[in-house]
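>> received
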Amino acid sequence: MSGSVVSKRPIVIGLEVHLHLNTKTKLFCACSTDYIGKTPNSCVCPICLAVPGVLPLLNDSAVELAARMGLGLNGKIQNYSDFHRKNYFYPDLAKAYQVTQFTLPISVGGYLDIEADGKPKRVRIHHLHLEEDAGKLVHPTADGRLAGAAYSLVDYNRSGMPLSEIVSEPDMSSPAEARDYVAKLRQLARYLDVSDGEMESGSLRVDANISLSNPDGSLGTRIEIKNVNSLKSLERALEYEISRQNKVLDSGGKLVQETRMWDDAEGVTRSMRSKETASDYRYYPEMDLAPLVITDEQIDGFKRSMPELPWEKRERFEREFSLSKEEIVILTEQKELAGYYEEMTAAGAPPARAANWVRMEVLRALNETAQGIEEFKVEPAVLAELVKKVEAKEISSTIGKEILDLLARENISLGDAIKRIGAPVGRVTGDALDALINKIFSENPDVVETIKSGQDKKGGKVKFLQGLVMKEAKGQADPREVSEALSKKLG
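>> returned
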């Protein structure tokens, strides 16, 4: 269904993306943010658990990371922002309210340029705000879902985790655009070291708001979709919801403003509750936190610390290395992979050849070993030296790949790897080639006799010998020279 969704009515999509920030401690206390896999309720303190009388203290690192993300999205960092209490009752919210930013967020405005179905598009950002995360409900069922659970448990390890919530304008008009928007947002967060953006672990979560336009052009009933934990699920959930809403309207029914949950196993959305409005949450100022003041000097410092952004790197790669768009997209997907490639070129590897080796061989090796580029044993300068040897025809491409695989498995030098593989140094030619052919002839006298007697009418035996010679030379012989030498020796 992906990419083929059809709607009689214009589609309007806006997204709320929640990013866990890469801080060592939580937003308002000193508890560790390294809670994944830890014993439930072990990374908590009186502040996380809302013990009466405790006071929050704002994490400066979270403020800086949120500001960097806002700048990356071309937003305006506000000198003055504040916090509110968002009131709702749910077991995973120990305080019965969430500390968040409401009327004055840390960053306002901005945009993110995306490309879906080959067409560029600009998605406007409404704002980015800071808030704390809630805990997590654990259901004792085989699949971990609420359905069929006799009871639920609460793990507060996640409670108080620092979040930046990025709210887009309703500018997206297809599931593909929504998917590309989230992918670009995640890439930006990783380039900025703001968040790891892992949807599977909950570091990045998406709430999708979708409606179909009315005949007069006004927005239709807005429906929110939760529980989306992958880019593929986001696209599937939106496609299903578009189809469902069209069917309801086509049959003369009316849509209800509500929050729906995506059931990935069944591929459907299910109603959770009626959609709340701001008034339902009874926002009021957080009296235990002073307003957040960021000076112009601090904002200038944030700007100076900004690294090269993904789209800036793509433009520079195109300008400096003359690579294809496909190559550039792959090389710049991860900041670390782009850095590896640049170190190879700095070490003297030809840009086009280096790009090919990184795209084809390095990524293959990483995939086979389930590693990230940060764990790759082969240093960029070492691979650059190997690529230069292949370019100089000192080593064949086939042997070069074998050497790379050995380097990726073991901590040995390039010279030792070449010796282990047994790769000849330089081209096998002249007397060395003659000696090698004589060796093949002595090992296959019956084949040689068949050819000399004129029985190899189709030349299959000659090709067989040529293959043996090339194999023995480990690809270091010129196929044309081998063919000519064989013809001469066979008469």
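>> Residues 231-250 form the longest helix (20 residues).
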